Amino acid sequence: MTTLTDPPKAGFRLSQLLYDTRYRSITIQVIAMILVILGLYWLVNNTIQNLSALGKDFDFGFLSQPAGYDINQRLVEYSSQSTHGQAAIVGILNTILVAFLGCILATILGVIAGVLRLSKNWIVNKLMAVYVEGFRNVPLLLWIIAIFALMTEGMPQPRDFKVGGDASMILGETVAVTNRGVYVPGVVFESGWFASAAMNWLAVIVVLVASLLVIRVVRRRADAIQEATGDRPTTWWQQLGLLIIPAGLVLVLMGATMQYPYIRGFNFTDGIHLRNSLIALWLALSLYTGAFIAEIVRAGILAISKGQSEAASALGLRPNRTMNLVILPQAMRVIIPPLISQYLNLTKNSSLAIAVGYMDVRSTLGGITINQTGRELEGMLLLGAFYLVLSLLISAVMNVYNNRTQLQER
Amino acid sequence: MKKSVLLGAMTVAGLAAGAAGAATLDDVKARGTLNCGVTTGLTGFAAPDANGVWDGFDVGVCRAVAAAVLGDPMAVEFVPTTGQTRFTALASGEIDMLARNTTWTFSRDVDLKFEFVGVNYYDGQGFMVPRDLGVSSAKDLDGATVCIQTGTTTELNLADYFRSNNISYEPVPIETNAEAQQQYLAGACDVYTTDASGLAATRATFEAPGDHVLLPEIVSKEPLGPLVRHGDNEWGDIVRWTLNALVTAEELNVTSANIEELSAGTNNPEINRLLGTEGELGAMLGLDADWAKNAIMAGGNYGELFEKNIGENTPIGLARGLNAQWTEGGLIYSPPFR
């Protein structure tokens, strides 16, 4: 009888780390890890050494010191006596504002241009191609500066609007387009519930959001009735009423009145001042990113097989319903992931604001504050952390939406 | 992948923070050129001429230092800096000295860790407005839109001035003097404010300088001077005493015209010490004996530099005023060469 003997148990040899496939991958990973740690150590050590050579310390205390400079566009209370930290917050809000406005406009432009680029109408098709290629292939900074220069050099000065001047307001004397920006009518609350205008607006927005939630309930009910009986009850007037009446009531209760801009002294007062810098940055970011989104939308639509639209036609759906009910919902699955990175690009590109003097976080915290306090390292780290957090937040929100549009597989 | 990107970014950051070594003099000598930070372009103070050669009052200081250290006033690499980039450029060692109408303030000296070696122009912040605006005082500027170079002391002074006078304004932040000029001329701002000398220099380049007025208010003290990093006192001494040599030369009537004659030896021991024919001043700085002579020959003494670049016979037309020699009622005063 033969017995199977175990193979001789050789001791672990060092060369196995390199030649034995069981260990080799671990060896390589360990070496890579050590190199990374050494690299990081060198960088941190280098930074510490250089800081001490310059006689500087690492301290975020400057954030609570008075900033001393003024900011033109501020969404929250701020004066030159406020702290550097508050200046940073004003900048952060300005960044978020332009990124938010930019994402919305870029999406609208992109979807329209992307769909129209597939049009069978030759002129529309080519016009959109010119838009996409023109904006996609010219650096964003040039567009920002071009739009800004157009506004600054091409529009009349505010004092030309004075009596005897040769400029006049448009849209029934309510909107003034000047070389310092566009002045539009604004809403003020005469008996607002809160002291600050921002809080009053927040109240209106909360009511609007609540209305939207109720509207969803109404829609769900309509869906359920349609499922059960095949007839969809008419709900558009309920929806419209729900949207308008509560918000309108709040506005009336807070004494909302329109305020029209008028010229006084050097500038227009009252109303809302959309500064050149905001307009230039917003439009340029939207047009530029919109061109990329157009291509994404076009690719998404082309990715849906022709059989889908043919099947929809066979069922008797008209072309626009085919697009809205069959093609776009499926195309969204392809569109959204690259759309997220376009939103992130837009947000980060908004840091080009300094080119036109828009006071975003790069200009306040990353610009003037660093310059006045000499805290480059701290300021840049904070700035980097802010953009990181903002980008992660945007992609988190978009990922939730993405997961909901993805194909549900069981 | 994520790690390697992070590593790359930090490597760049680390390298950028690297260069600030100690012995600037050795670095400059080894390199053979002086890296001097100047403005991105302000006529009279620092701007390239038609041939692309930098010229101006601040440039003159750079050239004098290069002449003193390297013997060649043209051995200067000019690095244009904005109000925002200048301090980082100096702190990181990208430039050896900064001569860029920079105001000497407490926090820049103490907190930002720079060494101001002296004052080459005593200035104050002023306001320029178009004549047809009909404004005669800065106090009439309530509600005006003001163009302002960002990252400067003028930005802080402006906030203080309007706040203490209880009037409002709309700041338009701008990176460089050229952009400010363009915005101001386009009427995107009513007022341009910066150092009065800068306003005069900017106005001189306008097509119709007479259509613009400088308001009478000077709202701050702006002692402008060259600066170096903290921590390298030998280099600081060289720049300081080069500037002092230019000032002393004017006081002693040593000009670029008569310097050859005087350096043969004179009866005035201070001139002899200055020009290196007597004493060991150059060796004490670690330079040649004729360092100051070279510096003065580079562009003339302080008064010559002033007259040639920004004086009353130039389009900029600044009077000496506070910047006259102390013997003529001004503030320009050099410690003795002894």
UniProtKB/TrEMBL annotation, chain A:
PROSITE patterns: ABC_TM1. The keyword Transport applies. The keyword Cell membrane applies. GO terms for biological process: amino acid transport. InterPro entries: AA_ABC_transptr_permease_3TM, ArtM/GltK/GlnP/TcyL/YhdX-like, MetI-like, MetI-like_sf. It is found in: Cell inner membrane; Cell membrane. Its main location: membrane. Residues 92-398 form the ABC transmembrane type-1 domain. One of its GO terms (cellular component) is ATP-binding cassette (ABC) transporter complex. Keywords: Amino-acid transport, Cell membrane, Membrane, Transmembrane, Transmembrane helix, Transport. GO terms for molecular function: transmembrane transporter activity. It is a multi-pass membrane protein. The chain crosses the membrane at residues 23-44, 87-116, 128-151, 193-215, 236-258, 278-304, 380-401. PANTHER family: AMINO-ACID ABC TRANSPORTER PERMEASE PROTEIN YHDX-RELATED, MEMBRANE COMPONENT OF AMINO ACID ABC TRANSPORTER. NCBIfam families: HEQRo_perm_3TM. Belongs to the binding-protein-dependent transport system permease family. HisMQ subfamily. This is Putative glutamine ABC transporter permease protein GlnM. It comes from Pseudooctadecabacter jejudonensis.
UniProtKB/TrEMBL annotation, chain B:
Keywords: Signal, Transport. GO terms for biological process: amino acid transport. It comes from the Bacteria. InterPro entries: Bact_solute-bind_prot3, Solute-binding_3/MltF_N. The keyword Thylakoid does not apply. Residues 1-22 form the signal peptide. The keyword Ubl conjugation does not apply. Coiled coil: none annotated. Residues 33-262 form the Solute-binding protein family 3/N-terminal domain. Belongs to the bacterial solute-binding protein 3 family. This is General L-amino acid-binding periplasmic protein AapJ.
